[in-house]
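Listing 4. Sequential folding, example run.
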Amino acid sequence: MDIHKMEKREQKAKQFMLVTSILGFVVMLAAGFQAALPFSWSIFLLLVAFLFITEFFAIPVWKGATTLGFPIVFTMDLLFGLPLTLVVYGVVILCVNALQKRSVHILSFNAAQLVISFLGAKGLMLIFVPVLGRSLETLPETMFYTALFTFLFYVINHTFVDLVLLIRPQPYRFRDWKQKTTVESVGMMISIVYLGLFFLLGNQNRGEVVDIFSFFFFFSPLVALSLIGASNVKLRREKDRLLGLVNLNEDLNERIPDKKWLAGVEKNLSKLFEYDGIGIWTKEGSTWTNQLSLGIADPKKERTNLDSFEEKYRELTVAPSPIQKDEQVRNSFHPYVKTAVLCPLKVEGDTAGFILIGKTRSGRIRPEESKMMKALVNQLEVLMKGRSLIDEREHRMILQERNRIAREIHDGIAQSVAAAVMKLEVAKRQAPGKPDKAFELLHQVIPELRSSLSEIRESIYALRPFPTEEHGLVQALKEEADRVRSLEKGTQITLTIKGDVPILKPEKEKLVYTTFKESVQNALKHAGTASADIVLTSTEDEVILEVSDAGVGLVLKEALIKARKGKHFGIVNMSEEAGRNGASFQIDSEAGKGTKITLSVPADR
């Protein structure tokens, strides 16, 4: 749907709401001229107060909320007549929507459509229920009248809202209609039951005087249900938000080193605040990169727009509503968006990113939503600062590794090659007169060059990406097992994978791989056996590597002493690396009975 068609449909929706509002206010104005003063001001004011409370505080129902004011409106109609009821109902809804900071066109539409719905239900009752031609003498007739009246009111009210949602360009899916209908149906059933009790108790005729206290005690449970339900909604919403914020912080902190550091954030993001579209952008140098795009967020924004936002919006800002007033903001959002929030991400005082939040409904952002948005901004700023520190550390480590390799080449390979070159030059000079000595030097140089070549290959291999980074843990283990089998003829390496092995943090996968490789090498070189059984097991809480052989076995104390004195620190390194990664490392071995190495690595959550 192009922008012109969308604007046309949006305009039609506004026109429908305007016509409904005008019609509703005309009804209220006409009713005002016909309304009679209440016979009891105390009862009247009590019902008005109760109506305001029940309409202001909605009770939770499934994934939404509904109000319980209809039984009170129905009672006011019975006691004080339809004209006064329509006026009071409209004024109360206007006040409630004003306190909830609804926009003017929504405020007037809500009041008008409820007044028209009540009047329409009353008119249909006059047409289709012949019993209204005489007084309602029996309780079943009264109950039937009440249930039908309530049903018609909710149907008409429901239809008004559906028409607006269908006319608007924003998608109104069947599941949305189903959820809305379910919520309203629960409110309707509560109203029918409560009014049924009203007539049932009134029909008992106990000779008691019906005064303000009777109405107070009868409607107090309804008001209490609204207050308790609304408090429960607020507490539940705040609990979900806090839980979502905690889970979001945990997920983000775990993913600080990852390239896709915002993966999975959407499952908790929706708990913090309502949005129809959200995009998170980061800036490196002069380049903007889209890190996250959810809902109707449009990732195809021009970099120049974000550059201009950087100068214009230096703190969390709600763009002018409707955003059509600001062409720059409007062009940066999906055409459905009516309210835009722009949140810069600051790192050390400089803009390092932007969060763009869009809503399809125009209006202000609630204070609690604004707080959660700021909390999200603060968390992302801390995360980005952490990522920058990690990048700096990695850069320093790379420089240190380069310097180390340079020293090794200079002190090792370079010296060996230089010595070989000198010997070759000597052999070249001796070749004409002393060929025997020249050949002797050549025989010395060739092994040295082969050794240097081997060192060069090892250095090149060390500079390559780690196998687990290239292929993943399971594939890296399989390829290493195949490599060992191909190099050592007659070697039997059995690798068994149990369960779905999850993706672990890079350092943990490296630990499993190096432990596997070192254990297999120890089994083949020192255990006096040509076979090893490897089992990699994945459970809910950990990944377990077991390497077993049927070799000569070892006495652990002696092996550690030997390892400390020698050049190779396989067992020591494996144990220390396991401790640094929160894993457990265990060796079970007896002389002559083989060795079993077990590594248990906690799974990432």
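-- end of first protein; second protein begins --
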Amino acid sequence: MKHGFRQSMAWLHTWSGLLVGWVLFAVFLTGTVSYFRPEISLWMRPELHGAAPNPRAADVILAELQRRAPDVPSWNIQLPTAHNPVATAFWRDRTAERGFRLIQMDPRTGGELSARGTAGGDFFYAFHFQLYSMPPLWGRWIISFCAMFMLVAIVSGIVTHRRIFADFFTFRPRKGQRSWLDGHAILAVLALPYHLMITYTGLVTLMILTMPWAIMTNFDGQRQAFNAAVFGIEQPGPRSGQAAPLTPIMPLLDEASRRWQGGQVGRITVSNPGDANATILLAQRDSERLSVSRRTVIFDGTTGAFQSAREPDAPADETRGVMYGLHIGRFGDGAVRALLFLCGLMGTAMVATGTILWAVKQRQKAGALSSPGARLVEILNVGTIAGLPIAVAVFFLANRLLPVDLPQRAEWEVRCFFIAWGIAALHPLLRRHRRAWQEQLWTGAVLFLAVPLVNAATTHSHLGATLRAGNWVLAGVDLMLLVFGVLLGATARIVGRSRPAATPNRAAEGRRAMPALAE
């Protein structure tokens, strides 16, 4: 604290952001893409693009499941939506390779739809909160740790900015480091409520992992009892051994919708199907409510009689549900999710410009004699900020170019992602710093622009067809990829035109202009 409180906060802001900046960049980027997780998953399964909605989909699917799997403990059905017109059914099966079966079903016929193996949008979602390939517990702990650093960086950045309102309107282009500093401040201030919300709610989603003491103390470590009390996840009763047909499902859907003032059912869970003790649980669609706390109705599976309903009205439960819902953004329509997507991109760019600023300032201070630590930061900046978009583009290209019948095809898509990222991480070791930036940014731009072209060459769901049909779910993915390509290309041109780093004297001048951030 020898330099004063504000200067100490500037130091804390710099180092709390830098130490985990590359992980935060990856988390922000993949989390931002995850706002359109259903659309991406559908785009990556072109064999399913011909599916169409059916108002009696639940009836058709249940009839098919009674034929295919009549003796399993339960069926879990995800009904089709506007973002994903395909139904999904899940049930336990000891004879299956992984102990369960998960199939895509045509909502019109109930038949199984065969599609290429793909990680889809679920890959970005899983990477965002548990780094995908790591053991889930380790990955979530790392993300929690980095999110805490991010919250510290945001709060200390607010304290550091004495001109936070002026920074909202200030950008001086073509001024070297000054422009980067202005851009970093604008990105931070313009979406500041979003940055605070997404970081804090991210910690809330993992609080049971990082703060499990309430479970251990109040429920004697019994996780099932905790789930039943907090989330309404109840264990079904045993089978009676007496066969009984299921009640018609459509009247139950109407009854649930009436109880929810017009809300629609998104998920159906049938426990003990074909037995006298069968129950049918209906859960409301997540997209219709801000809170993700379970809103359910349970009926007797043979008579259709109402048994119980769960309304998440407990303050703690609803508070957590709202925070979780804000974080994942399923509640919004296309315009709301597009706004969240834009704010997420601004957060991604904010993290990127922060790590770049630190490297630039260190180079200015050292002149030609850059320290090993500064050189390492420069290499990590290129390999992460420019390299991760390359890996994302390769992931989309792999979906279209890998053989459809390739064994472990979904895993190979992910391997292509990490192979491309690994090559991008090694590339700046062999090239000059500015040249490495240009080459990787141009590579990312070309790859993203190539994805819609490859899509047009390998499927019938290209932009010409989807735009003509008004299918904005599929067209939106292609357009998003094109926009990413254009942005990366524009950034590559800016990097190519930018002037060399300022001399130490000019760096000192910049610090005098903004002492709080430059210390």
